[in-house]
Design brief:
With 213 residues, the protein is α/β, with parallel strands linked by helices. The chain is built from six helices and seven strands; from the N terminus they run ααβαβαββαβαββ. One of its GO terms (biological process) is methylation.
Length: 213
């Protein structure tokens, strides 16, 4: 895939931030209630480890660290939170909000810098929009990115994509068939996978684990 192609996604989100500021619209989530649902489902990849003070989490594509804000609201402050984004604008704002936390600005496909190793990686909204990219270009990007990111997760990875089981599909969203994703994950990442489509949104979340759960 042309390295410049996925840069259009980064520019899109930066445009949302410039237009709407530090809110759900600034990271292109339609409403705060659905965003909170996504945060809850993403964190559930950790299971009982959410209470382990030694556990760590990488918020890949952290935006303005809204996941961290949600965690604090829910009283989940015991685990180590690390944020990462390809956009310097988002990372700068996140660092200003949470100067005590670790944030990295890394374009994972163009920068060979090792990703910080953690127990769990969350990629919330990173693969839900394709904008003007073709399905094939977005699928190629998704595969490259997942292969790059999964090694950083010692225990598990969670990410979401749009479902094919909807009344209609939007051309700017990434609607990915279950079977296609399952085949890729089992072949390239891990046999230990779980799909979540039980939380009322027109998407599903994939949990990928190193070991059986």
């Amino acid at each position: 895939m042309d390295g410049a192609s996925y840069q259009s996604l980064i520019k899109h989100y930066e445009g949302c931030l410039e237009l709407h500021g530090d809110c759900h619209l600034g990271v292109d989530w339609p409403n705060p209630l659905d965003a909170a649902t996504r945060y809850r489902v993403m964190l559930e990849v950790m299971g009982s480890d959410i209470s382990d003070p030694a556990a760590s989490l990488l918020d890949f594509g952290c935006g303005t660290a809204h996941l961290r804000h949600y965690m604090v609201e829910q009283g989940i402050t015991n685990i180590r939170y690390v944020g990462l984004d390809a956009s310097a604008k988002f990372v700068e704002l996140s660092r200003a909000k949470y100067p005590e936390l670790e944030f990295y600005c890394i374009d994972a496909l163009n920068d060979g810098t090792p990703l910080p190793p953690v127990d769990y990686v969350i990629m919330n909204g990173v693969l839900t929009e394709k904008r003007a990219l073709s399905f094939d270009a977005m699928w190629d990007y998704a595969q490259q990115l997942l292969v790059r990111v999964f090694p950083a997760a010692r225990r598990g990875l969670a990410f979401n994509v749009m479902s094919k089981h909807v009344d209609w599909e939007r051309d700017d969203l990434f609607h990915l068939p279950f079977d296609l994703l399952a085949s890729f994950l089992r072949t390239r990442l891990s046999r230990h996978i779980r799909f979540r489509a039980d939380y009322g949104l027109y998407e599903y979340t994939a949990y990928v684990y190193r070991e059986p759960r």
